[in-house]
Amino acid sequence: QVQLVESGGGSVQAGGSLRLSCVASTDTSSIYCMGWFRQAPGKEREGVVYMTSGGTIRYAESAKGRFTISQDNAKNSLYLQMNGLKPEDTAKYYCAAKMSRSCSLNSDIIEYWGQGTQVTVSS
């Protein structure tokens, strides 16, 4: 069982930045796939970005050029730097992990979820 705890959400104005953090209860170098998903009220959960242990990174189109994922295995942590935030980025952001060798922005494949952290962007 892997526990994931997010932090760093908050309220910002459009154009602002936030850095989300996720701490895992296990050695993140043993996790094949880690990523960030988000869910806005009334909408389905959607993938934002993932990173594999081999270094493959995939961003959703909405995140390209504005968001950056990074990982610090020494701290068992995953990060999401979000710049140029827009009101449509408002959502609850979830850290996600999958142990085995497959990765996707499809939330159906995720094995472990954090509790989420709220991001609110005002215009």
Overview of the molecule:
The chain has no helices and eleven strands. The chain has 123 residues and is mainly beta. The strands form two sheets. Strands 2, 4, 5, 6, 9, 10 and 11 form a seven-stranded mixed sheet that branches. It has a four-stranded antiparallel sheet with strand order 1-3-8-7, with no helix packed on it.
SSE class = mainly beta
Strand elements, count = 11
- Low-pLDDT stretches: none
Query: Measured on Cα atoms, how large is the radius of gyration?
Result: 13 Å
Rounded mean pLDDT score: 96
N-to-C series of helices and strands: EEEEEEEEEEE
**What is the rounded distance between the termini?**
40 Å
Helix content: under 10%
Gross geometry:
globular
What's the number of helices?
A: 0
Largest sheet: 7 strands, mixed
The percent range for strand residues is over 45%
